[in-house]
Amino acid sequence: MTVRLPSEVKEGLDRLAETTERSRSWLAASAIAEFVKAQEWQITEIQQGIREADRGEFATSDEVAAVFAKWSDAP
Description:
- This protein is mainly α.
- It is 76% helix and 0% strand.
- It has 3 helices and no strands.
- The protein has helices spanning 7-20, 24-54, 61-72.
């Protein structure tokens, strides 16, 4: 797999690789793995929410008000 990076990103990756004593490939693979994990989680949660909505499972007005009250009272 080939990835084209803007020069400033490549330079940052080079600095990070040197500082962490890791290879650019290791850092890139690690970053891609974290990105994929986050995206998969988000897609799974969205799909679950859609299935719940399709079943008519929504928060009650009282539940929504409680969440708003919780966050509006936060310092």
